[in-house]
Amino acid sequence: MSVPMQFPKDFSSTITLNSGAGEGGTDIAASNTGYVYWTTSSDIRVGKSSTTNVESVYVSQFMGERPQTITASGQYVAWISKLSDGSGTSTVWACAATSSCSKSVPLASKQFAGQHVGNITFDASDIVYWTATDSAGKNVFVYSCAPTGCNNNKPTVVAQVPTQGKAFAGGVAVDSTFAYFLVGDGNGTTLFKVQK
């Protein structure tokens, strides 16, 4: 069961942020707005970090997609979801960091058929970055996009790394100058950095 908890500094008691509904969670993100977001097998839930047992659905499963990984900034939440049909097709979404998502924005809609999509993050300017492989599994890409949308569903390619053997898109992190990302293939895992 996926139950996010808030621990006081002395760990003498816990504050349960949700009631345990929406099982199957795999990822969690916190925003400096005081909201905590987590994925379940069918939706994204939200709770207020200072409120016990109060949760709500931030965004429901839609168009047959299931949320996989999530990140939050001070103003936005972004996530990667996959179609439930087994095709591996993924979409990258963003929405305002509030108690519910009334209008999600597709940043890269159904562009990753058969690809491995890695992780997702924001930089300090609220630009979204994520990693993915190509459909042949021979290259790893780092993409970026504003959370309000990008160039008619065409994210910017920040980096492309050809691999030896089947590629694996790993984590991504950014600072003010660089994007750092992990690329896995038949030779192991390598950390790369590229100027943003």
Question: Your description of this structure?
Answer:
This protein has 196 residues and is mainly β. It has strands at 5-6, 15-16, 28-30, 35-39, 43-48, 55-60, 65-72, 76-83, 90-96, 105-108, 117-122, 128-133, 139-145, 156-162, 168-174, 178-185, 188-195. The chain has a single domain (5-195), classed as 6 Propeller (Neuraminidase). Helix content is 0%, strand content 51%. Strands 3-4-5-6 form a 4-stranded antiparallel β-sheet, with no helix packed on it.
Could you spell the SSE succession in H and E letters? Answer: EEEEEEEEEEEEEEEEE
In percent terms, what proportion of residues is strand?
Answer: over 45%
Shape: globular
What is the CATH superfamily? TolB, C-terminal domain
CATH topology: Neuraminidase
Distance between the termini: 38 Å
Percent in helix: under 10%
Q: How confident is the prediction overall: mean pLDDT?
A: 81
Query: Which consecutive residue ranges, at least 5 long each, have pLDDT under 50?
Result: 11-15
Q: How many domain regions?
A: 1
Radius of gyration: 17 Å
List the topology elements.
Layout: E1 5-6, E2 15-16, E3 28-30, E4 35-39, E5 43-48, E6 55-60, E7 65-72, E8 76-83, E9 90-96, E10 105-108, E11 117-122, E12 128-133, E13 139-145, E14 156-162, E15 168-174, E16 178-185, E17 188-195
Antiparallel strand pairs: 1-2, 3-4, 4-5, 5-6, 7-8, 8-9, 9-10, 11-12, 12-13, 13-14, 15-16, 16-17
Name the descriptors:
17 strands, 51% strand, mainly beta, four-stranded antiparallel β-sheet, 0% helix, Neuraminidase, 196 residues, single chain
